[in-house]
């Protein structure tokens, strides 16, 4: 667990203050990107890498457990549309894909930023 904290401590500085200052009567919704980072394991063909369901070091299941324990709801964002993003408070994008990782990556484009 110490290695995990050391590796991802920068996220603590960004995300946990949101919970400290969050209005106690509302619930925080945390969305984890699976559009710009959408990798599949070459051996299994299954999605992996920075997912709430991935309990290996490549996943974010521990972060999800921490958010849930703090009263947040977690969700996976399979396509970040304006209507989807309006429903969440925190949107985490980790390691957007490149052509080396994924044959057809979804790059972050100006239209994505504008919405």
Describe the protein's architecture and organization.
32% of the residues lie in helices and 15% in strands. It has 4 helices and 5 strands; from the N terminus they run αβββαβαβα. It has a 3-stranded parallel β-sheet with strand order 4-1-5. Strands 2-3 form a two-stranded antiparallel ribbon. Strand 2 and strand 3 form a beta hairpin.
Could you name the key traits of this structure?
4 helices; 32% helix; alpha/beta; 115 residues
SSE string, helix = H, strand = E? Answer: HEEEHEHEH
The geometry reads as flat
Main sheet, how many strands, which sense, barrel? Answer: 3 strands, parallel
Tally of alpha and pi helices: 4
Biggest β-sheet: strands ordered side by side in the sheet? 4-1-5
Q: Measured on Cα atoms, how large is the radius of gyration?
A: 15 Å
The secondary-structure class comes to alpha/beta
Q: For the residues shown, what is the average pLDDT?
A: 83
Stretches with pLDDT under 50, minimum 5 residues:
none
| Amount of helix | 25-40%
Report the count of strand segments. Answer: 5
Q: Beta fraction of the residues?
A: 5-15%
* Distance between the first and last residues' Cα: 37 Å
Question: Which helices and strands occur, and which strands form pairs?
Answer:
Elements: H1 2-20, E1 29-33, E2 39-40, E3 47-48, H2 61-69, E4 73-77, H3 82-85, E5 90-92, H4 110-114
Parallel strand pairs: 1-4, 1-5
Antiparallel strand pairs: 2-3
Can I get a quick summary?
32% of the residues lie in helices and 15% in strands.
């Amino acid at each position: 667990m110490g290695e995990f904290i050391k590796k991802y401590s920068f996220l603590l500085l960004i995300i946990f203050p949101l919970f400290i200052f969050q209005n106690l009567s509302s619930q925080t919704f945390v969305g984890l990107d699976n559009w710009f980072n959408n990798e599949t394991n070459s051996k299994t063909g299954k999605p992996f890498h920075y997912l709430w369901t991935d309990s290996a070091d490549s996943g974010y299941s521990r972060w999800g457990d921490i958010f849930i324990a703090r009263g947040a709801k977690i969700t996976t964002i399979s396509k970040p549309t304006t209507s989807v993003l309006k429903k969440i408070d925190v949107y985490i994008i980790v390691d957007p894909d490149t052509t080396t990782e994924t044959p057809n990556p979804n790059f972050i484009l100006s239209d994505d930023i504008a919405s």
